[in-house]
Amino acid sequence: MKTLVVCSGGLDSVSLAHKVAREHTLTGLVSFDYGQRHSKELDFAARAAERLGVLHDVIDISAVGSHLGGSALTDAIEVPDGHYAEETMRITVVPNRNAIMLAIAFGMASARRDDAVAAAVHSGDHFIYPDCRPAFINAFQAMQDAALEGMGAIRLYTPFLNGTKGDIVREGARAETPFAETWSCYKGAEHHCGRCGTCVERREAFFEAGIDDPTIYDDPDFWLRATGREARHV
């Protein structure tokens, strides 16, 4: 299955790229610059493409992103600390982000005659992000089947959809993903902050997977408080 991977440079998508390279035919990585404050993630996507020996396309949709306001990822709004399973994390939603990116990726895949577009959405995203839920994935596939009718069937490949982030870490380890060469933090500083939702989720995932976390966090213990594990580790 010739597969184009949508790759942000984060733990999930880089692990997916390594999984696809191991199990299918990885034809390339595509990343999107939508004006995100943590744009350094794109450098990690580029490193993944170089490591895997495939092309890396970065699509500049920052002009579109500038009209998708109200998110802490694109506006001058402070990224909240805490776990994803909190209402405060809804401020990190960028409206219709995945739908926009996937539509572009499907167009690219059709032009390249690929068989699939892969995305690393997982169950931990479902609470906050509506365009990461199974209903969206199924609807998007149906839409693309209609949009590309007669031009070839392209599958939306989401192997992590119903798994946890811990499952992704385990899959990434099996695919020999260099986890230190991935970027998750929404704040985009020198090191992972350890406090934002994606840092907390990342640290928790390694713990649940029973795999050493090579990430440098500015606050390496905050995740214990955010997940209610602190008392159990005193």
TrEMBL record:
Keywords: ATP-binding, Ligase, Metal-binding, Nucleotide-binding, Queuosine biosynthesis, Zinc. It catalyses: 7-carboxy-7-carbaguanine + NH4(+) + 2 ATP = 7-cyano-7-carbaguanine + 2 AMP + 2 diphosphate + 2 H(+). Its EC number is 6.3.4.20. Zn(2+) binds at residues 185, 193, 196, 199. It comes from the Bacteria. Pfam families: QueC. ATP binds at residues 7-17. Pathway: Purine metabolism; 7-cyano-7-deazaguanine biosynthesis. NCBIfam families: 7-cyano-7-deazaguanine synthase QueC (TIGR00364). PANTHER family: 7-CYANO-7-DEAZAGUANINE SYNTHASE (PTHR42914). Catalyzes the ATP-dependent conversion of 7-carboxy-7-deazaguanine (CDG) to 7-cyano-7-deazaguanine (preQ(0)). Belongs to the QueC family. This is 7-cyano-7-deazaguanine synthase.
